[in-house]
TrEMBL record:
<dbReference type="GO" id="GO:0000976">
    <property type="term" value="F:transcription cis-regulatory region binding"/>
</dbReference>
<dbReference type="InterPro" id="IPR001789">
    <property type="entry name" value="Sig_transdc_resp-reg_receiver"/>
</dbReference>
<protein>
    <submittedName>
        <fullName>Homeostatic response regulator transcription factor HsrA</fullName>
    </submittedName>
</protein>
<keyword id="KW-0804">Transcription</keyword>
<dbReference type="Pfam" id="PF00486">
    <property type="entry name" value="Trans_reg_C"/>
</dbReference>
<dbReference type="InterPro" id="IPR001867">
    <property type="entry name" value="OmpR/PhoB-type_DNA-bd"/>
</dbReference>
<feature type="modified residue" description="4-aspartylphosphate">
    <location>
        <position position="51"/>
    </location>
</feature>
<keyword id="KW-0238">DNA-binding</keyword>
<feature type="domain" description="Response regulatory">
    <location>
        <begin position="2"/>
        <end position="116"/>
    </location>
</feature>
<keyword id="KW-0805">Transcription regulation</keyword>
<keyword id="KW-0597">Phosphoprotein</keyword>
<dbReference type="Pfam" id="PF00072">
    <property type="entry name" value="Response_reg"/>
</dbReference>
<keyword id="KW-0902">Two-component regulatory system</keyword>
<dbReference type="GO" id="GO:0000156">
    <property type="term" value="F:phosphorelay response regulator activity"/>
</dbReference>
<dbReference type="GO" id="GO:0005829">
    <property type="term" value="C:cytosol"/>
</dbReference>
<feature type="domain" description="OmpR/PhoB-type">
    <location>
        <begin position="121"/>
        <end position="219"/>
    </location>
</feature>
<dbReference type="GO" id="GO:0032993">
    <property type="term" value="C:protein-DNA complex"/>
</dbReference>
């Protein structure tokens, strides 16, 4: 599961990131409101952990941005404000939880786990096609499809953004940990594997190439 950490205190941000990664989470660090907006725009998150006070904006305002894109994404506010009114304001704005600084890291992880456990499903279903990102599983007409790794992540990302054209650069930023270290042709390789391992055997078409612009999820579409 992927978590976005929005915290302008660099040391705290790094500590949270490293701690969450030890628990098996993927964590992206953002140190400002604008950085958070960028990441929210290109990636899908299971949870956003956001500080209230940021150098260029209000963490509470991020709640609406997150929910507009993905209503199922949980938002947890962390803040040095320890008064009751601030906590009520955050929860009424749409936050799933409010954690006061300073906090115990084990308690933070437990509360994050609780939010993710009771949050909405990440399963994508389009007619007879079911994509389960948490289990890395694809089922088509009750038959499981053998597609793993980066091709699975590419397919999932495109399915989440169906009806949108997604460029190679956007796919690299969203899926690869260090996109600057790989070449764009890895996207072509992943797309080819989707077509060979899934589309061709099932006689369906899931990914459309839009010349000079990128790719689009096009299922259902007869070949």
């Amino acid at each position: 599961m992927r978590i976005l950490i929005v915290e302008d205190e660099v040391t705290l941000n790094r500590t949270i990131k490293e701690g969450l990664e030890e628990f098996g989470y993927q964590a992206d660090p953002a140190e400002s409101f604008s950085d958070a907006e960028y990441y929210i725009g290109i990636r899908n998150y299971d949870l956003v952990l956001a500080d209230w006070m940021l150098p260029d904006g209000d963490g509470i305002d991020l709640i609406n941005i997150v929910k507009q894109k993905s209503p199922r994404t949980s938002v947890v506010i962390i803040s040095a404000k320890d008064d009751k009114d601030s906590e009520i304001k955050a929860l009424r704005a749409g936050a799933c939880d409010y954690i006061k600084k300073p906090f115990d890291f084990d308690v933070l992880v437990a509360r994050i786990e609780a939010r993710l456990r009771f949050g909405g499903t990440n399963v994508i279903q389009v007619e007879d096609l079911i994509i389960d990102p948490d289990e890395e599983k694809i089922i088509y007409r009750e038959k499981e499809v053998e597609l793993k790794g980066k091709p699975f992540e590419v397919l999932t990302h495109l399915a989440r953004h169906r009806d949108q054209i997604v460029s190679k650069e956007q796919l690299l930023d969203a899926i690869w940990e260090e996109p600057e270290l790989v070449t764009p042709n890895v996207i072509e390789v992943a797309i080819n594997q989707i077509r060979q391992k899934m589309d061709k055997p099932l006689n369906i078409s899931t990914i459309e190439t839009v010349r000079r612009r990128g790719y689009r999820f096009c299922f259902p579409k007869d070949k």
